[in-house]
Amino acid sequence: MRIGERWEDAIHVKPDFFKTFWSQRLEQKRDVLLIMGVGWDPRMTALARTIKAMGGQGLRSVHLIAYRPSPSFVSPQKHMVEKNLVALEQIIGGWATKETIEVITRKEGGLYVGDEVVAEHYLKCDLSGFTDIIVDVSALPKSLYFTLLLVLAKRAGGEHKDINVHAVACQDVELDAGIVESAEDVRLLKGFRGRLTRLSQSDIPRIWAVILERNYSMSLTKLHGIVGPTDIYPILPFPARNPRGDDDILIEYESIFVNEWNLNPMNFIYAVEEEPLDVYRSIVSLYQWQKDALEPLGDMSMVVSALSSKLSSIGAFMAAFEGNMAVAHAIGRHNPPAYLDLSFWDNGKMRSFEDSLHSVWLTGEPYES
Amino acid sequence: MIGNPFLYRAADVRSGSMADDRNFVNLFGVSSLGLIREMSTNLWNIPLLMISAPGGGKSSLMRIFSPGALHYIEETSRIGGVRQSLSEQMEALGAFKGGKPYVVGLWLRMGSEFRTLSQVEGPDRHGLFCALLNSRIVLSMINGTCRLNDLSVGKDLNRLSFSIRPEADSMTAAAWSKWGASDGVALHKKMSDLENSICEMTDDPFWHGDSSALAHTRLWASNLLANLDIKVDGCAFSYRPLVMLDDANELSPDQIRYLLDMLMSRQVTVSFWVSFRKEALGLESVLTQRIHRAMERGRDYQLIDFERARGDFRNRVLEISKLRVQSAAVQIGGLSQAFIDFVSDERDEVFLKRLDEGVARELRSRVLAAAGPELERFRSLISHIENDCSETHDLCRRLRMLEILIHREVGKAQKSFNFLEVSDQTLRRHESDKAIVEAAELFLAKEYRLPYYFGAQRLFALASFNIQQFLKLAGALFEEIMTAIRLDRDADSFLLPERQHAIVNDVGRTFLDEIPFTVTNGSQVSRLLRATGDMCMRETYRQSAPYAPGVTGLALTMHEFEALAKRTRKGDEACLELYQAIESAVAHNILEPEPNYKCKGQEFLVLYLNRLLCVPFQLPLQRGGFREQRLLTLLEWMRSGYRKTKVPERQLGLCE
User: Fold this and answer.
1) Can you tell me the distance from the alpha carbon of B625 to that of B651, in angstroms, rounded to the nearest whole number?
2) Is the Cβ–Cβ distance between A244 and A265 less than 8 Å?
3) Angle at A23 (CA atoms; ends A18, A25), nearest 5 degrees
4) What are phi and psi of A138, to 5 degrees?
5) Which one-letter DSSP state was computed for residue A258?
6) Residues in A touching B8 (Cβ below 8 Å)
């Protein structure tokens, strides 16, 4: 299968159709596993609440991935986390079974193992009882859900061909833009190292596609150090809700682009902000174009980094999965915007989150051939 | 697009492409080799460890010995000048022989995939680590040989042949018979396959295989390199192998211990250089510079601590800035090759312009107010200064110094009689004290918003002996220079002191604000730093300037530091938080340690603020005073920040 064919006709369910789609889907008996993260993000419970409201027959199971760097770690946003957990208990009670999966993300010496732990768990997890697995990335870090989606997508393509895996994100551009992620270390994610680190292939050109939003300067600089790209293609969000958003990004990273990277201004790519499939197609097109162009020189390797909204990152995942690309990511703490307070848990705000859900159907019925 | 040459990170650009190697060598400061030259007698015989905070220059010092860089140095040595100097220095070090590269530097960056191998348990847990490193050392040797002989790895491997000498030990010979090959193509394939198998094992969650089949019992590649004959087109290739493991801090603590044990036990028989960021070594190792137990520095290993190797830092950064400006010479019209030419250091001009009659009047009023009821003791001094000064700015400076003296005299616990004048001699002694002069300048700068952080000398000090920090500062300043040139401004208006001061303030503020996001335990480090900075600021700006030119650090007795370490090991959470903050701050050169500092019969661990962090707190840049703090105080700072306490003028533990 040529790259780009796997998800050529992928289904992206947008907010205005989300409830209709899922209520229709759940009209038939479906055994649903909802995998979600535990965190301070007020969007954490939006999907669970929405799915519960759909009703329907069948098993309902929730996996709560409770991740933290050490057993003794207490989140500085503990009050927000607890608020989410209380709300989730109210949703789950009487509706779904719950399993909490403890993920200690760091080992001795600070080694990040979150992706390894998640992979190990879901490799062994019995998925046979489910028809639909929904991964809610809203309160999960990219460093966990990229590998999680990889494992699920591969299992769904292998032993569980009839499982439908969906990735769901609650899109709030302003909230995402306000989240500051520290870049304590940078690495390639489990399952996505590609051939990047192999000395035997160090001579082949490395093409780095980096999907950008604001507030990632530190991550960008550190990632450049480990990727060591031959050429760089920043992907900017356009069209977007803020029509000047891409300009703002260019201004913010101007020094990096001009002074540190000496970037060719022709290298900028644009992908629609709220279209993960556009991100997917952009990366896949870039991959194919580079592969064709560099064929006389031999091979090439592609690296993807998603310094972007979670919705866009789903597109990045799809491209990386299909093309066996490396994914380089900066791992650190997510700090909420300074303006985030408990008013974000008001009913009005919660409803707006429920109205901002996107779903991308990754495996299962649409792809049976 | 035109780039700022100071922000280009030459060492980070991937080695391999000729253009990138050229760029790197062109920007490499030859004086940096001085760090290596100091240990040239033992350079190839015992392991060399390089430690620094991020951006210290370790990778650059390794990369200059990589095949691509050495090849370019050889090619361009005939040009003369810096190129020839580089070639000559390489010859003197033994990296060149007869004008040609002799060292094959195998520059290997330790990536996170090594660390994932540490999850294997059991006595053979280092087997995969050794296997991956073996494969990469051999592959790197093949690549390096090709590079130095102008061969292509893709097409010319069949021109290489390999054979092992009988002197190789039995384990190496056994490994060679299993993993080696005499033909370049076959050897490259075997090592590539081994590397690929291990990488797939670590990366693919669905990998099923026998990992023990891939494991190697030891790092046989080092003994192999010492006993490997290489022929290129049938002719012997003479070389000295040098294995350089960069960023060994990426390894797990267990792997680091294993590597150091191996190096120190003399199992490796070729030259080995290893670089670490300080954060990987632990605070105790960094402070004592004892990297390995029971091994003696100088005898068993060499060590370069980049932040402590300060000797010719100024020359190094001068050279680097000249090279960088040269690289942008076309853009700036070739006006000057020296960066410091653009950076105005006209201190007297600032005083001349800004310290006017109005300021002088105000200072006189303050002097009178400071003297208060003891005015008579100082009246003659005031007159003397006023009569002596013909220039207003000079008068202002001297009045400010006098104000300090008055506060000291008036504030004395044991005072003289009111009628006893303070003598001219006392004034002369006071005014000739360089620390007082500097304190007065600092106070005037703060009170009258004069630029303070400007000029080449202060720029070098602000770098805190870290190359990357210097480049960041110089880059921010150079950005302004490039804009001025584009706007065709007069040469004299390049980077006025006011602009330099403002830019340095921005960079310093950003440095402080980013700490929570850029260093390990960032928020703890930030709390400690802000409390320290607040304390330093308060102590510096005391009216009598007791710690002139200012306080820029804190000190903990070694006894209390050891108590902190002990309580940390026992699991005391508050102590752990403080210890980790200090450890991370030292590792990132945010706090500069001076352990075992002797003062008043005690030994202290002095922690100075990084010079750039002095800027947000408006502190001087000289290594000035520090203030002893009790452990309990520091713990309190971590909890609630710095709090002002009533401090008597004389305090136990006062050190200057």
Assistant:
1) 13
2) no
3) 95
4) -55, -40
5) I
6) 259-260, 262
CB-CB contact of B385 with B521 (8 Å) = no
Instruction: Show the tokens assigned to B288.
Output: 């004592």
Query: Which residue has tokens 């494992």?
Result: A151
Sheet holding B48-52, edge to edge: B103-109, B240-246, B271-277, B48-52, B302-305
Of B401 and B260, more confident: B401
Selecting from A120, A197, A332 the residue whose C-beta is nearest the C-beta of B111 gives A197
Q: Which residues pair with A60 in a beta bridge?
A: A32
Cis peptide before A239 (omega within 30 of 0): yes
Weakest-pLDDT range from A101-105, B100-104, B131-135, B310-314: B310-314
Give CA–CA dist B115/B254, Å, rounded: 10
Pairing label, strands A97-104, A180-181: unpaired
CB atoms within 10 A of CB B411: 15
φ/ψ region of B567 (left if φ > 0, alpha if ψ in -120 to 50, else beta) reads alpha
Minimal Cβ distance to B522: which of A111, A182, A259 = A182
Check: pTM over 0.80? Answer yes or no.
yes
Per DSSP, B331 falls in state: T
Specify which residues B346 forms β-bridges with: none
Strands A326-331 and A185-188 turn out to be antiparallel
Q: Rg of chain B over CA atoms, in angstroms?
A: 29
What is the rounded CA–CA span in Å between residue B154 and residue A201? 10
Tokens of B649: 């003028």
Mean of pLDDT over chain B: 87
Q: Reduce the DSSP state of residue B603 to 3 states and report it.
A: strand
Q: Of B592, B619, B618, whose CA–CA distance to B466 is shortest?
A: B592
Percentage of the residues of chain B whose pLDDT score is greater than 90: 52
Tell if the CB–CB gap between A191 and B204 is shorter than 8 Å.
yes
Interchain pair B196, A200: CB under 8 A: yes
**DSSP conformation class of B56:** S
pLDDT above 80: residue B493:
no
Please state, as a whole number, how many other Cβ atoms lie within 10 Å of the Cβ of residue A57.
11
Edge-first strand listing for the sheet containing A357-361? A11-13, A357-361, A164-170, A132-136, A32-37, A60-68, A97-104
* The predicted structure's pLDDT at residue B1: 45
Instruction: Write out pLDDT tens, residues A39-62.
Output: 999 999 999 999 999 999 999 999
Q: What is the ipTM of this complex?
A: 0.88
Contact across the interface for A255 and B4, Cβ inside 8 Å: yes
Residues β-bridged to residue A66: A102
Per-residue 3-state assignment (H helix, E strand, C coil) for B400-452 = HHHHHHHHHHHCCCCCCCCCCCCCHHHHHHHHCCHHHHHHHHHHHHHHCCCCC
Residue A62 backbone phi and psi in degrees, to 5: -120, 125
- Contact A259/B4, CB-based, under 8 Å? yes
Q: How far is it between the farthest Cα atoms of chain A? A: 62
